[in-house]
UniProtKB/TrEMBL annotation:
GO terms under biological process: DNA repair; DNA replication
GO-annotated molecular function: DNA ligase (NAD+) activity; metal ion binding
Protein name as catalogued: DNA ligase
Enzyme active site: 130 (n6-amp-lysine intermediate)
Protein EC: 6.5.1.2
Family affiliation: Belongs to the NAD-dependent DNA ligase family. LigA subfamily.
Highest rank taxon of the organism: Bacteria
SUPFAM superfamilies named among the record's database cross-references: BRCT domain, DNA ligase/mRNA capping enzyme, catalytic domain, Nucleic acid-binding proteins, RuvA domain 2-like
UniProt KW keywords: DNA damage, DNA repair, DNA replication, Ligase, Magnesium, Manganese, Metal-binding, NAD, Zinc
Gene: ligA
Length: 679
């Protein structure tokens, strides 16, 4: 039945009474359906009740309340998102990837609590599923939803209140008139993703890779109507502020959230030992794919609030909790070919061409096989069914071959004696003595030359804005550049002759080239692509000699005496600078650019004698900027972790260096702790 004008109450008193009844009934069935997954009436009946509610409110607009179900109706599109400063700082958890790391976490927690309480303490843990979605912070006043915000940078987030109101599982009013801040995860079901992707494909658009990306994009839509149509959901898991006493344990806190009317994920458990935590994690690795939401691990928290308070926080994460991540996603696909790729230093890398497959939310068709020894170790053959693994944003790896799938038609790969260049010519290759890598003996390969130019203009070197690989390719193909110094002699007319360049874009490129004419000595040495001389070695050489003039005159012995430079690198440097063609190139470059003097490290600087290793993605600054901060205070950067490493700095999705640092007891800094060192 639908409400019509004849059903609208004649008086305001009757309307107020009818609206009160409608709101309670609709809220009751909303809670049953969207929070408890139950239903006592059909969707059509619920729609009829909502329709009647809206008609009465239109007739009596002064009776509309902030928590009325009608307030979930999407209004006009937003012009933009306002910023909201969080009243409670928003933390993120550190990650663990193995049972060993969890046992280390357990030991750290117990040792710290024992120190605080001067006696042995045995905390319990609560395991909650780690939903792969988008964090949301809800603020209620006197039981009414006031604001909803994204996490942002932990201090300031975006106001997404209008969009969050479109999520039926978020209560507009709580079952008690309390004020507080509550945290949760907005997510989208796999089934909803399928529906949305069918619509995208039908409209001729690209489908979304995974529900997390679609959920994050949806909550930031400027049109709430789109949010409502896409059917987001939410789980609330934490009370961070409350105008009454917060429960003494995490399990009691989850019970309070349920009591207030929030949707709480039911799959949480209290564990007495870390081994029970590990067992729960192992169980949910198998069960996770069966749920409609994506699960990428288990959040483990100390259950007792008093112990949580005692443990406190690091710069960015609570010490009382950790995200116990599931192993990297693995899939199978077919290796269709192995193709050799020549790098800028001439090293030849075998690349597997794969039948395209989706892994960890992205489609992959290439994977490096590293070198000949790795191919032999895996016994991988063209035509094999292989296991592909990808962890976060890390390059995909072939980790094993499914040999049971072999038909006998697979072909072993034998490293050829020659490699074909992009221009159709071939060049000989050889295995580097004492190493597992091969290299091309022709130093003038066109593909190698391209990669050297790509590197020369990159951020690690001259950092020429707007001069990416496509521009370099166009310049090379037009034969406008052949040596590094040619870049600095380009004119506006040269660039305008290239395809897709208008006057403004051509002027911008010439201006960017001019702005890049001043460079530090370390970056200049890096840009030359000298064999065996990476970024860190280049900076060590720069600091040891101080000027390009001294480096050009240096001997093998001079290079070999630099700390961190071995005989192989010293020989490569001495040979490169002794070459007359390289000497001529340097003369031409030095007539076009200016190299800033490089100060030697001064003993007694704050970070003198300390070595840093980075792993993972930093959120607030680039890896290069972080390295410059360290060098400015006399510190060193290394690429691998050893017992001599002073600190390992971790970002999002840290790799094996993080695990090695834990095993060697090397101090670990998160990004916030790292930045604190420079205040």
């Amino acid at each position: 039945m639908r409400a019509n004008d004849s059903t609208i109450p004649k008086t305001k008193s009757e309307a107020r009474e009818r609206l009160s009844s409608l709101r309670k009934t609709i809220e009751h069935h909303r809670y049953l359906y969207h929070v408890l997954n139950k239903s006592e009436i059909s969707p059509e009946v619920l729609d009829a009740l909502k329709h009647e509610l809206v008609l009465i409110e239109k007739a009596y607009p002064d009776l509309i309340t902030p928590d009325s179900p009608s307030q979930r109706v999407a209004g006009e599109p937003l012009k933009g998102f306002k910023k909201i400063k969080h009243t409670v700082p928003q933390w993120s958890f550190n990650d663990a990837f193995s049972p060993e790391e969890m046992r280390e976490f357990d030991t750290r927690v117990k040792n710290m609590l024992t120190k605080v309480h001067s006696k042995k303490v045995l905390p319990t843990y609560v395991c909650e599923l780690k939903i792969d979605g988008l964090k949301v912070v809800l603020t209620y006043e006197n039981g009414l939803l006031v604001t909803a915000a994204t996490r942002g940078d932990g201090v300031v987030g975006e106001d997404v209140t209008a969009n969050v109101k479109m999520i039926e599982s978020v209560p507009l009013s709580l079952k008690e008139k309390v004020s507080g801040v509550f945290e949760g995860e907005v997510w989208m079901g796999k089934s909803t993703l399928l529906r949305v992707n069918k619509e995208e494909i039908k409209a001729g658009r690209e489908p979304y890779a995974n529900p997390r990306n679609l959920a994050a994009g949806t909550i930031r839509q400027l049109d709430p109507a789109i949010v409502k149509a896409r059917t987001l959901d939410v789980f609330i898991y934490d009370v961070t502020a409350l105008d009454k006493e917060i429960p003494n344990t995490q399990t009691e806190e989850l019970a309070l959230l349920l009591k207030l009317g929030f949707k709480v994920n039911e799959h949480f458990v209290e564990c007495r030992t870390i081994e029970e935590v590990i067992a729960f994690w192992q169980k949910w690795q198998k069960k996770a794919p069966k749920e409609d939401y994506w699960i990428d691990g288990v959040v483990v928290k100390v259950n007792e609030k008093a112990y949580q308070d005692a443990l406190g926080y690091t710069g960015k994460a609570p010490r009382f909790g950790i995200a116990f991540k599931f192993p990297a996603e693995q899939v199978t696909t077919v290796l269709e070919d192995i193709v050799l790729q020549v790098g800028r230093t001439g090293v030849v890398t075998p690349v597997a061409h794969l039948r395209p497959v989706s892994v960890a939310g992205s489609v992959v068709s290439r994977a490096t096989l590293h070198n000949e020894d790795e191919i032999l170790r895996l016994d991988v053959r063209i035509g094999d069914t292989v296991i592909l693994q990808k962890a976060g944003d890390v390059i995909p790896d072939i980790v094993a071959v499914v040999k049971e799938m072999r038909t006998g038609k697979e072909k072993k790969f034998v490293f050829p004696k020659f490699v074909e260049d992009t221009d159709g010519t071939t060049s000989p290759i050889e295995r580097i003595p004492g190493q597992s890598a091969h290299r091309c003996t022709n130093k003038n390969m066109f593909s190698q030359k391209r990669r050297k130019f790509y590197y020369f203009v990159s951020k690690k070197c001259f950092n020429i804005d707007g001069c990416g690989p496509k521009v370099i390719d166009a310049l090379l193909d037009a034969e406008l550049i052949g040596n590094f110094d040619d870049i600095f002699t380009l004119t506006l007319g040269d660039v305008l002759a290239l395809p897709r360049f208008a006057e403004l874009s051509a002027k911008n490129l010439i201006e960017a080239i001019d702005n890049a004419r001043t460079i530090t000595l370390g970056k200049f040495l890096t840009s030359l692509s000298i064999e065996h001389v990476g970024e860190e070695t280049a900076h060590d050489i720069a600091e040891a000699f101080g000027s390009i003039e001294k480096i050009r005159k240096a001997s093998f012995e001079n290079f070999n005496n630099v700390y961190g430079v071995g005989e192989v690198v010293a020989q490569s440097l001495a040979g490169w600078f002794a070459d007359e063609h390289h000497s001529a190139l340097l003369d031409r470059l030095l007539s076009e650019i200016k190299i800033e003097s490089q100060k030697s490290k001064v003993k007694g600087q704050r970070l003198s004698g300390q070595t840093f290793v980075f792993t993972g993605t930093l959120a607030t600054l680039s890896r290069d900027s972080a390295k410059e901060k360290i060098r400015a205070l006399g510190g060193e950067i290394a690429e691998s972790v050893s017992s001599k490493t002073s600190y390992v700095v971790i970002g999002e999705n840290p790799g094996s260096k993080y695990t090695k640092a834990l095993s060697l007891n090397v101090p670990i800094l998160n990004e916030q702790e790292f930045l604190e060192m420079f205040k």
